[in-house]
Amino acid sequence: MARYMEALKSSLAVMGKQGLQSLEIRNDDTVIGEKLMDLLCYSPCLRKLVIDGGCISRLSKQMALLVNLRHLYIGVSNIKQDDLCVLGSIPTLLFVRLFVENGPDERLAIISHQFRCLKQFIFISLGGGLDMLFMQEAMPELRWLCLKFRAHESDCKMGFEFSFKHLASLEHLKVTIDCGDATRSRVEAAEASVRNAASAHPGCPRIEINRYLEDTEGYRLS
């Protein structure tokens, strides 16, 4: 492992000096993925980063050094507010797909002047419940927002709270609610929360809400 990581570090350093702009890696090893994130500072010209096939446990603060990054596709085991702030500080991001294995256990807020150039944001959470607020002047260029989350009640007791009204450029909102292992009342509460938040948006974006696994035995009796 040590020899492999040293070779990877050396390769990234060489390619970084040569202006590496696109990096796509299929990662099935969490340890390698985390070490890779810490090595990304060697590639300041990177514009596209795709890490597929597995989740890393955390987002490295080193990502803030990727000041030219435009396209990000990544999975993490857990997400915190500070992690979103690190991503939001990257000034050039246009596309982000963020997959969260365990789901957040706290309210997430996209704060003012974060993700200034972002056009598309895809957030997928396997945890139960989701509280996500988009504050005033956050994601001012966002056109397309896609959220997918599970409705079942998890140990952290997360509910459903959303705010989209400050997304000034939003044109299309797509939300998928995973009904697996959820009560019907939880699913209905999730959808109602999304619809209420979307209806408050002054720009009347296109709204698409889907229920995943609704037609299977995913529901628990309520």
Automatic annotation (TrEMBL):
The keyword Transferase does not apply. Pfam families: LRR_14. Residues 3-207 form the Disease resistance R13L4/SHOC-2-like LRR domain. SUPFAM superfamilies: RNI-like. Keywords: Repeat. InterPro entries: LRR_dom_sf, LRR_R13L4/SHOC2-like. The keyword Translocase does not apply. Signal peptide: none annotated. This is Disease resistance R13L4/SHOC-2-like LRR domain-containing protein. It comes from Oryza sativa subsp. indica. The lineage of its organism: Eukaryota, Viridiplantae, Streptophyta, Embryophyta, Tracheophyta.
